[in-house]
UniProtKB/TrEMBL annotation:
The enzyme's E.C. designation: 3.2.1.26
Tree of life domain: Bacteria
SUPFAM superfamilies associated with the record: Arabinanase/levansucrase/invertase
Residues annotated for substrate binding in this entry: W47, S119, R193, D194, Q276, T277, E278
UniProt enzyme class: hydrolase
GO MF, one example: levansucrase activity
GO biological process: carbohydrate utilization
Name the record gives this protein: Beta-fructofuranosidase
């Protein structure tokens, strides 16, 4: 069925699908992280992380340096639990993608017109060979605002390291429209953030994925048969399920500068299933489109359960779907139930490597925890049709480069 803008309607992650989610499935569980994990940086809490990449998703080596970006907060001013009160984007660089040197904040002080810098992506951009664009979420506490935004600058590197210039002017891109995506007046628990920009190989156009909620006045609509799906007899859908309504959003760039966007209906919705599908991103492999997103145990709808981790959906018909949950359930890599909050904010790269940050790891005495705020061991996923398998554990924070920027071989991608 086609809707008014002529593309397939949103695919549903149903309650029936989510009933197939089981923690500790060995093929979809992140191996336990050791209590003795190393800390990447003593001065900053580090959480959501993404690599410098090209617009097709390949991790870039710029003059021999790999670069990553992460949300950081000063450990001397903020605790792990209130780190969002100091959230800024910082960059780190490395030869080979293992030992990361802190480079500094990416945006100039005062460039962001709002309080905090939340997640997004950083890509090599058209312009000069060292043009870089960051798309991030510009967040304000009062009044509540969460605005996908863009900021541009340049990367420079020499034998001693990497630095960025520019990044002093922020352009807002779009806001929740209240039509496809809930705005604050409809849902004061609304999520609208985490832009991930890419070129769709099918039509060559530039799109952005983002986290949203289904547009409706929160809690006023009962969860319907379609969202429940084919469930066993006597299955009860608790009334409170109507308060959860995550959506994986998409918009198309309508100008070359990627400052103007047309909102499109969500790709996947989870009304009655889960309230958050964060940091959505995409991997194109073997003619299939894999859509990944992170979600929490705590954001599942009443009556459902699942681990914190990365979830996925697969389409055989390109970016607009229809999508099916990967592994039938949607669960791709959950935390083990022995360490349910060990890691979060997984990001799946096009080579199947998955980075995430360490949140909280219990000691042998389960009442004693260690906070992370540093990168988790990278794990390797194999994507096989509609299934995924975890196959390897690599080093802590291992994010190797995939292409040299800018060689003759990569110049035509640019
Ligand atoms: C995921 C997340 C993102 C958000 C950031 C804020 O861990 O909730 O959706 O941009 O963290 O810290």
């Amino acid at each position: 069925m086609l809707n008014t803008v002529g593309i397939a309607e949103s695919s549903l992650w149903t309650r029936a699908d989510a009933m197939k989610v089981h923690a500790d499935d060995p093929t979809a569980t992140m191996p336990a992280i050791s209590y003795d994990f190393p800390v990447m940086n003593e001065d900053y809490w580090i959480w959501d992380t993404w690599p410098l990449r090209d617009i097709h998703g390949q991790v870039v080596s710029f003059q021999g340096w790999t670069v990553i970006f992460a949300l950081v907060a000063d450990r001397s001013k903020y605790g792990w639990s209130n780190r969002n009160d100091g959230a800024r984007i910082a960059y780190f660089y490395s030869r080979g993608g293992l030992n990361w040197v802190f480079g500094g904040h990416l945006l100039k002080d005062g460039a962001n017109p709002r309080s905090w810098e939340w997640s997004g992506c950083t890509i090599m951009a058209p312009g000069t060979a060292n043009s870089v664009e960051v798309f991030f979420t510009s967040v304000n506490q009062t009044p509540p605002q969460s605005v996908p935004a863009q900021c541009k600058g340049y990367i420079y590197a020499d034998d001693t390291g990497v630095r960025f210039e520019g990044f002093d002017e922020v352009t807002d891109l779009f806001e929740a429209d209240g039509l496809y995506y809930a705005d604050y007046t409809e849902n004061n628990f609304w999520d609208f953030r985490d832009p991930h920009v890419f070129i769709n190989p099918e039509d060559g156009k530039t799109y952005v994925l983002f986290e949203g909620n289904v547009a409706m006045d929160r809690g006023t609509v009962p969860v319907g048969k379609d969202e429940i799906g084919p469930v066993p007899p006597e299955t009860v859908t608790p009334d409170g399920a109507r308060y959860t309504a995550a959506a994986i959003g998409i918009a198309r760039a309508t100008n070359e500068a990627r400052t103007e966007w047309k909102m499109l209906p969500p790709l996947v919705t989870a009304f009655g299933v889960n309230d958050q599908t964060e940091r959505p991103h995409v991997v194109f492999q073997d003619g299939l489109t894999y859509l990944f997103t992170i979600s929490h145990h705590s954001t599942y709808a009443e009556g459902l359960d699942g681990p914190d981790g990365v979830y996925g959906f697969v389409s055989e018909n390109g970016i607009f779907g229809p999508y099916e949950p990967l592994n039938s359930s949607g669960l791709v890599l959950g935390n083990p139930s022995s360490q349910p909050y060990q890691a979060y904010s997984h990001y799946v790269m096009t080579n199947g490597l998955v980075t995430s940050f360490i949140d909280t790891v219990p000691s042998s005495d389960p009442t004693v925890f260690r906070y992370g705020g540093t990168l988790a061991p990278t794990v390797k996923l194999e994507l096989v049709g509609h299934r995924s398998f975890v196959t390897e554990v690599k080093g802590y924070g291992y994010i190797p480069p995939q292409i040299e920027w800018l060689t003759e071989a990569t110049a035509d991608l640019f």
